[in-house]
Design goal:
Largest sheet: none
Strand content: under 5%
Shape: globular
Helix content: over 70%
Distance between the termini: 37 Å
Oligomer: single chain
Order of helices and strands: HHHHHHHHHHHHHHHH
Length: 255
């Protein structure tokens, strides 16, 4: 029997990473594989089992990923453009058969990866803060606080309306009603769905209660420089790039 020596990663992908100028970036796939095999992934699973709430789970996951994120910050935006090249020109052993390859390449040609790279690199850059990952710790704290808000929401704490998500219930129900409107009073385009979700949930969360905005939210989120920078990056232009990518992706995979 003939044994295939073709890797699941593909030779093209290896060559794309090897062309990167920064040695840290060239070795990122190997560092990722090492993380999965040197006990770090197993340690993460053990830590996850020990957690009692969502805040603990989020903290354990982000703490484990921190070293990888530090490396990835040094490789933005080339990490995304290289990963896209790997996907578009994949030649590994995960795809078999002439028709499967034909279908895969057809899908890849339809997806607007340029828009995805613009969006992902900009938002990941805001998440990192700089090439050294100056904002990683801040966003870990912010993510843990968001998770704690969910924990408080599920535990039924209602004395403080600002430190949980329970006050968003009406807006969430209204958004669900919009999606399930059988009379179709408003066309369910992607743009309209995003617009309605923004008005009913995120905008309601940040601006729906002036006391929360001036107190709890400002103290824990709005006064954080890293968070404010990320919000400024997430402007109409970035939303447009993400929408273009998402539209092309959904159209490509739906045939």
């Amino acid at each position: 029997a003939v044994v295939s020596t073709q890797s699941t990663g593909g030779c093209n992908c290896h060559s794309y990473f090897n062309k990167l100028e920064n040695p840290v970036c060239r070795g990122f796939p190997c560092r990722l594989a090492k993380w999965a095999t040197d006990g770090s992934a197993a340690k993460l699973l053990r830590n996850i089992r020990d957690q009692k709430d969502l805040k603990g789970l989020v903290g354990a996951a982000m703490e484990s990923a921190y070293p990888l994120m530090q490396l990835a910050c040094k490789c933005n935006p080339e990490l995304f453009s290289t990963a896209v090249s790997c996907a578009k020109n994949y030649d590994g052993a995960l795809i078999e058969g002439k028709e499967d390859w034909k279908g895969y390449r057809k899908v890849m040609k339809k997806i607007k990866f340029d828009s995805m790279i613009k969006f992902a690199s900009a938002m990941f850059g805001a998440y990192c803060g700089d090439k050294e990952g100056a904002c990683l710790g801040s966003f870990q704290n912010l993510a843990e606080e968001f998770a704690a808000m969910m924990d408080r929401s599920c535990s039924g704490e209602t004395e403080d309306q600002c430190n949980n998500f329970r006050r968003l219930s009406d807006g969430i129900y209204e958004f669900i009603a919009f999606l399930s409107d059988e009379e179709g009073q408003e066309e369910l385009t992607l743009k309209n769905i995003v617009k309605m979700f923004y008005v009913k949930v995120p905008k309601n969360f940040w601006c729906g209660d002036s006391n929360c905005a001036a107190g709890y939210l400002s103290k824990n989120f709005n006064n954080n420089c890293c968070f404010r920078n990320a919000v400024e990056k997430f402007d109409a232009g970035m939303v447009g790039e993400f929408e273009k990518y998402l539209r092309s992706f959904l159209k490509a995979v739906s045939g």
